[in-house]
From TrEMBL:
The keyword Glycosyltransferase does not apply. It is a multi-pass membrane protein. It holds the Pfam family UbiA. Keywords: Membrane, Transferase, Transmembrane, Transmembrane helix. This is UbiA prenyltransferase.
Length: 284
């Protein structure tokens, strides 16, 4: 059951800390506790979605060289049990928010569940919209972090998050297309894309994201300590983007969470970026 819940993919839910972190609130126990609670709720909601998707796609997954090993597809986990637990998790996540009276957070969480359901039922079969839908799920995680602590999201934050999500999703699809045999490309919308198109999406998203991040990093008053640190953060940010492009071109971008857990240069760059952004924010 734990494996079917895909705990490695919970890494995506760390996005809920982004808005409170860049707002300089994570040194306060209250916002930190709220962010941690929202992280748990999104882990539950995401796992519920994964379980229901695995039940729905079990027959298709058995034809896939890697997905056939999933617990439901392989028969090691009962489809009825997986579906039951999935429904409980999906209902429990928004239900836990209701007593808090945080209606903004509840709206974002419900929106996330609606979007994931729409993707599973319809959008996954429509080219381009499937990219936008998956990227939108990542964005809603980041938006939920702001809603949890009442932080208004800046235009810089939203643009960088949206473009970063699109970059990762396009890279994932491109790697799937590289590694999927021709007969299986009809799965979902994968056969509707070309490697050249997805590479163009990656290039467009990363270029616009880098420009936006640079504008944000250089927006501070020149000469202050925070402005120098923010400016310095541009270097690891660009290096991270370049590293990700390299990994996708090597054909190892199918599972972004695996890259984050295994690629040492990416990890080092991420830590440096977080340190610089954190210092820039909390020294203001």
């Amino acid at each position: 059951m734990l494996r079917a819940a895909r705990p490695k993919q919970w890494l995506k839910n760390l996005l809920v800390f982004a808005a409170p972190g860049t707002a300089g609130l994570l040194d306060d126990p209250g916002p930190l506790a709220w962010s941690a609670a929202v992280f748990v709720l999104f882990c539950a909601a995401a796992s519920g979605t994964y379980l229901l998707n695995d039940v729905r796609d079990a027959a298709r997954d058995r034809l896939h060289e890697r997905k056939r090993a999933r617990p439901v597809a392989s028969g090691r986990l009962s489809a009825y049990l997986a579906a039951g637990v999935g429904v409980v998790l999906l209902l429990a996540a928004p239900a836990a928010v209701v007593p808090t009276g945080n209606w903004a957070l509840l709206a974002v969480l419900v929106g996330y569940l609606v979007l994931t359901s729409a993707y599973t039922l319809v959008l996954r079969n429509i080219t381009v919209l499937d990219l936008v839908a998956v990227a939108g799920c990542h964005v809603l995680r980041a938006v939920a972090g702001g809603a949890a602590v009442g932080v208004p999201l800046t235009r810089w934050f939203l643009i960088v998050v949206c473009l970063g999500a699109l970059l990762v999703v396009a890279g994932k699809r491109e790697t799937e297309l590289r590694r999927t045999p021709g007969a299986a490309r009809a799965r979902g919308t994968l056969g509707g894309y070309s490697l050249g198109y997805l590479a163009q999406v990656r290039t467009m998203a990363s270029a616009a994201m880098i420009v936006t991040y640079c504008l944000w990093a250089l927006e501070d008053v020149v000469g202050t300590v925070s402005s120098v640190i923010h400016g310095a953060s541009i270097v690891p940010f660009i290096l991270l983007v370049l590293r990700y492009h390299l990994l996708v071109d090597r054909g190892v971008g199918e599972e972004p969470e695996e890259i984050a857990l295994r690629d040492r240069p990416l990890q080092v760059g991420g830590v440096v970026l977080l340190l610089l952004v954190g210092l820039g924010v909390y020294l203001e």
